[in-house]
């Protein structure tokens, strides 16, 4: 049932979106920088989700670091959500339909010090020259909080990595020491054997000599 539903949704989307938009929003695609429709646009208005037409980013949340992509320092209240297991690579999704929008970076310019790097192919833009509302306090706080949580997760992951590395190194050191010990044992054993052999040979020689000595006077 779910498969049927998603198939139907996909075929509906196929009619609605261009292949590029389909690739970005449903296939989590990445577009080449400077190739999208919106990264350079400085007009006043609002950016919407291309799939479900949810309001995502007001144009005055946008900034222009010349990377050839759309950068926003916040989204509309609750319009996006973050997803992904890797704290270093968090995906930005539309909270309305779950479409892929771009990626989130926990470092950025004021006022939130974070950035949403969004693919042009996931956005539609409606110009509204007279319409600018300053961002709400919550809209500014939310991304900052998310960034903090992310940075904490990143640090934890790094610490865990270091711990695992230390454990691995310790293991190697122990293994080396063990191998060294085994080698020494083997050498000791070999030395002992050789000594025994030499002693045996010496005994035999002595015995032989003694026998010869014993035989000599008889033959004379
Ligand atoms: Zn959407």
TrEMBL record:
It catalyses: L-methionyl-[protein] + [thioredoxin]-disulfide + H2O = L-methionyl-(R)-S-oxide-[protein] + [thioredoxin]-dithiol. Residues 174-202 have a biased composition (Basic and acidic residues). It holds the Pfam family SelR. Its EC number is 1.8.4.12. Keywords: Oxidoreductase. Signal peptide: none annotated. Residues 10-128 form the MsrB domain. SUPFAM superfamilies: Mss4-like (SSF51316). One of its GO terms (biological process) is protein repair. GO terms for cellular component: cytoplasm. GO terms for molecular function: peptide-methionine (R)-S-oxide reductase activity. InterPro entries: Met_Sox_Rdtase_MsrB, Met_Sox_Rdtase_MsrB_dom, Mss4-like_sf. Residues 174-220 are annotated as: Disordered. Belongs to the MsrB Met sulfoxide reductase family. This is peptide-methionine (R)-S-oxide reductase.
